[in-house]
Structures are given as C-alpha cells and as structure tokens.
Specification:
Elements lengths: L1 E4 L4 E3 L7 E7 L2 E6 L5 E7 L4 E2 L1 H6 L6 E4 L3 E7 H10 L1 H27 L2 H16 L9 E2 L2 H8 L3 H13 L3 E4 L2 E4 L2 H8 L4
Antiparallel strand pairs: 1-8, 2-7, 3-6, 3-8, 4-5, 4-7, 9-11, 10-11
C-alpha cells in the first residue's frame, strides 16, 4: 500500500499509534521530535529506501517522533501484522533491519555528542552537508536544497535567528549561495573541513 504526500504534509505524528512500517519510495522526509516546550528538533533525514517508525512498531509503543515530507513524497506502508510476519519468516529482512537499527543508533550517538560539544557554526556546516547528501541527485548536475530556516535551525539545534545569521556568514565566505529558501553548496570540501574541526 502506498500513499502520496505533498511537501510539508505530515506522514505520522508524534504520539500517534504505530500502524506499520513506513518505507520512503520517493522524496525526502524529516524525522523530528517536539520538546516539552514545543521546540522542534530534527533527529534525522530520510530519503529513498529508508524505513520509518520501526522502533515504535517493535516496542509496541506510540510513535516517539513525527515524520513530515520535505519534498513531494511517495511512502509505502507495511501494515503491522504483515511486518511481524516478515520479521518471523524472513531472516534476510530481520538481519537488514538489525543492521539499519545499529547504523541509526551509531548516527544518533554521534549527533548527540556533536550537539553537546561542537560550536553552532560547525554544527551548521554539518547540517548543510547532511542536507547536501540527502538532496544530491544521482547525476552530476548542479542542484539547490529547498529548506526553510526553521528546519535548518531544528537540524542544527539552534534558533532560527542564529541559523540565519551564520548562513549569511557562510554566504559571505563563499561556502553557499542562497535564493529565498533554497541553498546551494558552493564548497563541499570547505564545509567538510569546518564541520570536522572538533571531531
């Protein structure tokens, strides 16, 4: 079963019942969490081939995060009973899911450390590289990243004002170009160098 979502449309909400495993067939999705004070933090970005909501599904909990389409998307849903049948009967599927969980746990630990120890400027460079990788087309054509300042701030773990100010600095330094809500990475090597200053 697949469903189309428009950019900005919610795929599932934090606190909703986990009805199945979501698979991103086409498009980009942000996985986010709201803090107690209502501030959004983007946990990760999902793209074609990624699966969502597996942890809540396996734990029998409500969804601990929300998923929102960053672009127009097509998302497939494997209903809860079918997911558990697959898990029991298909060892290749189970092993792939375990590897995915291990990889995502490692990435989450890394991001947690970076949020705690990296200055905001370096975190913004890292967020831009993450977006660059998520939106990079298969062919070697120039592209820009459609991302709001709110989402950029939520991905960086800072305020919208700070993200906007630092993005302007990056633009002045020739690292990026901006046009409205679209960002073009002009120097991936320099952003990589900046992002890894505190590694």
């Amino acid at each position: 079963m697949h469903q189309s979502y428009r950019k900005g449309q919610v795929i599932f909400e934090q606190g909703s019942r986990a009805v199945g495993l979501y698979c991103v067939f086409q498009g980009k999705v942000k996985i986010s969490k709201l803090s107690a004070d209502g501030k959004e933090q983007i946990i990760r970005l999902a793209r074609e081939g990624d699966v969502l909501c597996y942890r809540s599904l396996m734990m029998g909990q409500v969804c601990t995060t929300a998923a929102t389409a960053l672009t127009d998307c097509v998302v497939c849903l494997i209903p809860r009973p079918d997911f558990f049948s697959l898990l029991e009967q298909n060892s290749q599927f189970s092993n792939s899911l375990l590897r995915l969980m291990a990889r995502n746990l490692g990435e989450a630990e890394e991001r947690l450390l970076h949020t705690a120890y990296k200055p905001v400027r370096e975190r913004l460079a890292e967020a831009l590289l993450l977006l660059y990788q998520a939106f990079q087309p298969a062919t070697d054509v120039p592209f820009s990243i459609p991302v709001s300042r709110e989402d950029l701030a939520a991905l960086t773990g800072t305020t919208k004002e700070t993200a906007s100010r630092l993005l302007s600095e990056f633009r002045d330094e020739g690292l990026v170009a901006t046009q409205g809500s679209r960002i073009t990475v002009l120097s991936q090597p320099r952003l990589t160098q900046l992002a890894s200053l505190y590694n």
